[in-house]
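Standup notes
- HV: blocked on the assembly model, inputs below
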Amino acid sequence: MEPLPTGRRRETFFRRWSAFRDGLNEFYVGPYRQMFKREQQGEEDLFMIAVLGEALGVPDPAAYYTAELMPALWEDFHAWHRRIGIPRSPLDQIKCC
Amino acid sequence: MLLKLASARKVLFVGGKGGVGKTSVASALALERARNGGRVLLVSTDPAHNLGHIWEMALSNTAARVYTAPSGYVDAVEIDPHSTIERHFSAVSATMMKLLPERLHRSAQAHLELAKTAPGSHESAVLERIAELIDQGLDDYDLVVFDTAPSGHTLHLLSLPEKLTGWTESLLASRSRSDRFAAAARGIVGGEEDPEAAADSELRRTLIARRDRFALMKKTITEGATTGFVVVTVAEKMPVAESLDIVAQLHSLGVDVASLVVNRRSPADAGAFLAERRKREDVCLQELREQLPTVPMTELPLLVRDMAGEDALEELAALITAT
């Protein structure tokens, strides 16, 4: 086999090296990212429950105010009920799927 | 005494047990202040409004002139929570329609209909209207007089701004934590753009606007130089006991109890029956004085005529000035 020209060889080496480095990075750092993501999701679930309280059957004395927050949360609702393990929308009045 | 108070403060709440004459006292106070050259906004927060009956006019959620003096006037409002609810939810609905795709419009509407009828919505709407009227009153009037509902309802309303400030604070804190976690997760993978950022800033803006409004209202209500509470009572055992309760609760809310008004005092010189009543009333008042030695007290006599119409109110107003 012909030896690769020096330039090409160096390029290949760098490509492999950086792939290896990225993999190593992911190996060490990935679990932490997961952890932060999970924490964030937990926080967002809490928020969603606080805002949707009335619709979920928890009397919400602040429904007048939480309604103001609905526009910004509506689109996340589908992702949320899927994530908490309810495959179809649990609310009659929100038919997202 | 009362007139001086009405000139010194910008906002007065008139409250007390049911049936002691809150509406008459509030109206007479407003009238007297107007005769002194003040522009007065008189607001009824009681769901069962009486203000229109006493002024013999049909009143609504928007201000209507009920009394004109040479250099002052009284405008009156009966708060209608339903129209405030409608206005609020149609604004929310407009925002929703703007942000959401067509296919979600129907279900979004249905959800809002449900929130409209939620148990707390009614009083939230009253609170919202009170906040609006205080704002408007501080700008356009010299004095805003609130003729409030019987004590429990009113004390609850006055405690709401503080509770709701806490509520918005905790929701905002939750958003901040969520953001920090998201940023931490992003930081690890290295500066990837967050697609939810736009919706989140919308949430944040709404929450912050809410919190600021509650905080402002709480500040206005608890500022002794601006706002005072006038407790109306009659000199009988139960109303006096309830008035003492009200005063204690107002103190714990940080609201200044500016004055006590003892309404419908029986005359000493109109027969043995009324004279005997007056003696018993004196005993009740004695207790009230002992318990609240620092709150100024005004006594108003029992009047022969019914408290309705401008003439009757002028008579009561003259007595308020005299005492």
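- HV (later): unblocked. The beta strands of chain B are 11-16, 39-44, 64-68, 73-78, 143-147, 227-234, 257-265, 297-301. The radius of gyration of chain B is 24 Å.
- Next: hand off to the docking folks.
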